Amino acid sequence: MPNDTLTIKDNRTGRSYEIPINDNAIRANDLKKIKVDDDDFGLMTYDPAFLGTAACRSSITYIDGDKGILRYRGYPIEQLAEQSTFLEVAYLLNHGELPNQEQLKHWTDELTSHTYVHTNITKFLEGFRYDAHPMGMLLGAVSALSTFYPDAKNIADPKNRYLQRIRLLAKAPTIAAFAFRHSRGLPFVFPDNDFDYIGNFVNMTFSIGGRHKPNKVLQRALEVLFILHADHEQNCSTNAIRAVGSSHVDLFSAVSAGIAALYGPLHGGANEAVLNMLDEIDSVKNIPDFIRGVKAGERRLMGFGHRVYKSYDPRAKLIKEIAYEVFEQTGLNPKLDIALELERIALEDDYFITRKLYPNVDFYSGLIYQAMGYPTEFFTVLFALGRMPGWLAQWEEMVIDSEQKISRPRQIYIGSDERPYVPMGKRQSTVSAEAG
Ligand code: CMC
């Protein structure tokens, strides 16, 4: 037994148990031996929403939520945002090391040769209603990729898994741009492999009658935003991918589960929700009333709070700086005043201070995307494009982890005890009770 142990005394039986502690954690399964009698299943931990449960070992991303630290493979996010390209970061997350010149060229070439989607994917996207939410389109199309690449089912082969990851990282911007064009009634612009990864996406999105002439500052800002979103360890969408992927389904199906999770307003959908909230507040003079509603528990201040960060989200700090660079090019976003005032009040107000609620990655990102010309409902798609390398790396790590098994939590059953079947004629009518 190692020195680091936990002694537990079960007051129901008076028995004591010694449980090993490794990496500041105990194994939930070690609690199984704590029983009242032999046919008892043993003690479980009850942890809805994984507030205190680690579900994997990971070497991809490190977060210290109290100190506001975020590192990919050991590299501080601030240094990556300043010096790296998105494809270098994608390589880093997926290979564990920064690429040298030759490796980066090879990685870029591989991705460039997979940017096209099958013509039937374009037809599939055309089939959506004119006002379809682009996250729904992305979700549907990524999941549909599994039918175009049935070989993706062979997840036991490392080369095959690599190919599918390349395919998805390469095609995601194409699908996203097509979803954007569809909502505007514009013809699709196909990938142009003379552009780099970000430039190609921007061209497929904004080009009208010829190649788009990008504003370099805006394009770099978009790239940095993608870098800041590239991974965030075991967040809701990554956990969804790991859980679904643990059934050994193909990569495309697993990632579509992650896209679905990201869509929600408590996760990636928060960037869209922030803009809707700023629209609704409309003017700085309405903020005190809005904050009163938040403190009364009637609503949430979207873009604030985080499960892990209990200080300023380091990504939010960087994004605020980018916002000013972007606004120098585009002119100030008129909603910036409202956002700044909300932040000022929240950082001084006891309600937010005691709960350690600070701006998160989604608070300012939407203002930037809007200034760049993206419609509100497209913001979460941009988040998904940024997060893709992290999702792929986390999926791969899960697949090769010999400790992982099909994800299958336990429950505490609180329903009826066994009871005899009631024939239809003898069942009580509940219609009036339900209606009432
Ligand atoms: N506005 C007002 N109160 C809040 C907020 C908020 N944004 N977030 C948390 N609280 C309160 C919450 O009501 C609770 O108060 P009390 O203790 O009195 O009941 C306390 O703070 C703890 O909240 P929680 O719901 O237990 O915290 P959580 O870790 O389960 O939730 C969160 C984290 C991100 C879902 C939540 O903070 C939230 O809903 N924020 C708004 C949505 C948002 O911005 N999401 C983006 C998250 S960052 C990027 C990403 O993941 O995509």
Task: Walk me through this protein's architecture.
By secondary structure, the chain is mainly alpha-helical. It folds into 3 domains: 5-46, no CATH class; 77-264 and 379-400, Orthogonal Bundle (Citrate Synthase, domain 1); 270-371, Cytochrome P450-Terp, domain 2 (Cytochrome p450-Terp, domain 2). It is built from 18 helices and 5 strands. It has helices spanning 77-83, 86-95, 101-112, 119-126, 134-148, 158-184, 197-206, 216-229, 236-245, 251-263, 270-281, 287-295, 314-330, 336-348, 350-354, 361-372, 379-400, 431-435, and strands spanning 5-9, 16-20, 61-64, 69-72, 75-76. A 3-stranded antiparallel beta sheet has the order 3-4-5. A two-stranded antiparallel ribbon has the order 1-2. Helix 6 runs parallel beside helix 7, helix 6 runs antiparallel to helix 17 (379-400) and helix 10 (251-263) crosses helix 17. It is globular and about 75 Å long. The N and C termini lie far apart (60 Å). Carboxymethyl coenzyme *A binds at residues 235, 266-268, 270, 294, 300-307, 355, 357, 360-362.
